[in-house]
Write a structure and sequence with these properties.
The protein is mainly α. It has four domains: 1-38, no CATH class; 63-138, Zinc/RING finger domain, C3HC4 (zinc finger) (Herpes Virus-1); 153-241, no CATH class; 244-294, Herpes Virus-1 (2-Layer Sandwich), CATH 3.30.40. It is built from 14 helices and eight strands. It has helices spanning 19-26, 29-38, 63-69, 83-86, 113-119, 129-137, 146-149, 153-156, 158-178, 184-189, 206-214, 216-234, 236-241, 284-300, and strands at residues 91-93, 98-100, 108-111, 124-127, 144-145, 203-204, 263-265, 272-274.
């Protein structure tokens, strides 16, 4: 035998095929064998499931229609099923919306992302082996940008809306703490939460969402936020380096962007003011900046 690094001499190549192979060639059996083996990679009527994140709920369809659309083949392995005898034994996958044989569907169950995103439904539903493995593999991955794939979900789930408010505050105060040279200890407490939750708004994994549903994330987020605010209130670096004084009332209290219950930010210059003070009046800082810009333009001409 020749190894992969050797060249096989022409004299060692048999001129005639072995009997069984020759029979396949002469009788057209070789093409049939190739066709059968190619089923492993897919045919015109069947292709194996592919890795995909499905954000919607599969539409309700008649069982017979779905199986017929699959050409009476298992959606997982392509095995042909005799319609009258065995099609009733096929098992439905709620994630892919297809039917599978018992070799490809072991009656496993999983939370369906589409049902969570559209109905806040965390019940487990039957899925095939492929879908079960896929969903398990992405369970803790932050793949779901709710303001893109589930805009109405905040209105449906009060606990999610409450967590979003906390998330906005955490993201804001974390940015402030990163600029403080004395905040290493309190920043370490943020590790109790997945980093994406305190870095980017609306971004969640399925694991995050079910913990929001159970109240676990809100409890942890409140504790982290409390420690962070305690630091800011006691830290001179934060008080004098990152706070704002309301330019409307000129009060003595220092305002921070994370104080969303009492503070409002100008959408243009991002300066903070008391919500009670900042109503229909123009922003003083923006007005100053506009005057300065006009003076510079006048001086340049």
């Amino acid at each position: 035998r020749c190894s992969s690094s050797q060249v096989c001499p022409a004299t060692e190549i048999p001129i005639t095929f072995p009997l069984d192979t020759a029979c396949l060639v002469t009788r057209g059996g070789l093409s049939e064998e190739i066709r059968q083996k190619s089923r492993m990679r897919g045919t015109l009527n069947w292709a194996p499931p592919r890795f995909q994140i499905i954000f919607n709920v599969q539409p309700t369809q008649r069982r017979s229609d779905v199986i017929a659309s699959q050409h009476f083949l298992c959606a997982g392995c392509g095995t042909e099923v005799e319609p009258r005898k065995f099609s009733k034994l096929l098992r439905y996958c709620e994630y892919l919306g297809r039917y599978f044989c018992d070799g490809c569907h072991s009656s496993g169950e999983s939370v369906i992302p589409g049902r969570v995103l559209s109905r806040w439904d965390f019940r487990c539903y039957p899925v095939c082996v492929f879908s079960k493995q896929l969903l398990d593999s992405i369970w803790e991955q932050p793949l779901f940008k709710l303001n893109v794939v589930a805009k109405s979900l905040y209105g449906q789930a009060k606990e999610l809306q409450r967590f979003r408010e906390l998330q906005e505050q955490l993201i804001s105060i974390k940015k402030l703490l990163r600029a403080c040279r004395l905040s290493d200890g309190v920043l370490a407490e943020f590790q109790q939460l997945p980093s994406h939750l305190t870095d980017e708004l609306h971004l969640f994994s399925m694991d995050d969402l079910i913990k929001v549903k159970r109240g676990q994330l809100v409890t942890t987020a409140k504790a982290v936020f409390r420690s962070a605010t305690d630091h800011v209130e006691a830290c001179e670096v934060c008080q004098f380096g990152a706070g704002f004084i309301c330019e409307f009332c000129r009060g003595q209290d220092v305002l921070f962007p994370f104080q969303t219950d009492i503070c409002t930010r100008c959408q243009d210059c991002r300066t903070c003011f008391h919500t009670a003070c900042f109503r229909d009046e123009p922003c003083p800082r923006c007005a100053r900046l506009q005057i300065r810009k006009s003076l510079q333009e006048t001086a340049s001409t």
